[in-house]
Amino acid sequence: MNCSGWVSILFMIASAFIYIVINPTLIHKSTSRHFSQQNAPVYFNYKSQTTKKNLLKSPESFAILNDYIYMGLEDGSVVRISTINLSDINHLDDNDIELVIRTSELNPNKTAIPSLSQCADMANRKDFKQEYLCGRPLGLHFDDIGRLIVADASYGIARIESVDGSGINTHDNNLKNKLQITSLVSTLSGKDIIFANSVVVFNDLLYFTVSSDKFSRPEHMYEVMEAEGRGALYAYNFTSGSTALLVANIPFANGISLSSDHKKIFVAETSSARIMKYDILEGTYTVLSDNMICIPDNIKLHNHVLWVGCSQIRSNFVDRVRRFPFLIKLFCSLPGVFFKWIVELVRSKDGIIVALDEISGDERMVFYDYGGEAFKHVSEVQPLKGYLYVGSVYHNLKRIKINNK
Ligand SMILES: *[C@@H]1O[C@H](CO)[C@@H](O)[C@H](O)[C@H]1NC(C)=O
Ligand SMILES: *[C@@H]1O[C@H](CO)[C@@H](O)[C@H](O)[C@H]1NC(C)=O
Ligand SMILES: *[C@@H]1O[C@H](CO)[C@@H](O)[C@H](O)[C@H]1NC(C)=O
């Protein structure tokens, strides 16, 4: 490490210390201040159900079709599970989970790809150096004939379908060797995509977000801190095979969802804590919900309600540090371990999920789990058959009963 590296560490530790001393509210203990300003009911103290230790780890996003939930896991696989087998979620075992595909099949160099168990092992150790090889499936969305579109953080946008090009046969309980994955968009303006995030398919267009063109997924906190707006919303045309930039310079473009009237695409801006709407016909990009109480990740529309998975409650630390560009520079120049340590120290562990009205953007409900025992760092939420299914890159698939407040 060079000298300026050490200087910056000392400086950071000193300023972090001063910050904590002069600002005791820095590390969130209570959030009632935020909630008192809410009109929506807030539900506390949820209990969640989850899977056994090594099953369904870190599902970032889901797609639901014909009683199956499809999800992308930390080992780079897309798997599915039937809701029938999910009825006993605590006792799921490996036989209940079907491998759909590994996104690493997109890599033409087969010898470069670690095995599935190697990928699982590395992800488990939080060693993400080879994630770009293992793949990291994030956003998932079915097209109208049942082909599954995936936004893989490092391999880009791809389509999973039967080998004959038709949709995934949901009733086939032996998918092995019957599916293929084809790349749709892996480069933008000649540069490899390094952090694709979310997808929505509508008619002959596929909308997708890229969160950054500088940092990859494992480096996402740098993107959050710098907040220089390196994300974007794109549309890929299936007929022409071309990709158009719709909105540039989005501060951490994250989850997207199609409005009920099919006229707008909602876009979660993680770094600016707001949900935007892109008008498909007009091409305008305006605010749906500003200054949210949490940091939005994926958003999914069900019955006019936009379910927002929140990575965390808003952090004073991040909000404040971001007002001082020199602090950000120093903070981001810290060696990785220190950077991550400070991030973990200051980020709230409380879990939060918000349901918004898709027209007004007002909060309808807030689910808050103090301490994050039931859920935390939520990436996605979808209601299904009396449960809210909760995805997170920090824990296994979880669900909470909707009406047992
Ligand atoms: C449900 O689980 C059983 C084993 O417990 C498995 O044999 C079966 O294929 C699963 N059903 C579906 C629809 O995946
Ligand atoms: C494929 O990957 C292997 C292992 O990383 C590497 O040694 C080899 O050069 C690669 N081949 C090509 C054609 O890139
Ligand atoms: C997609 O591309 C085709 C062929 O170039 C074009 O006719 C069509 O209008 C495009 N669709 C949209 C929605 O732009």
UniProtKB/TrEMBL annotation:
GO cellular component, one term: endomembrane system
GO MF term (any one): hydrolase activity
Transmembrane segments: 6-27
Keyword annotations: Glycoprotein, Membrane, Phosphoprotein, Transmembrane, Transmembrane helix
Pfam families xrefs: Str_synth (PF03088)
Ranges of residues in domain Strictosidine synthase conserved region: 203-280
Classification via InterPro entries: 6-blade_b-propeller_TolB-like, Strictosidine_synth_cons-reg
Homology family: Belongs to the strictosidine synthase family.
Protein name (database record): Plasma membrane-associated protein
Provenance organism: Acrasis kona
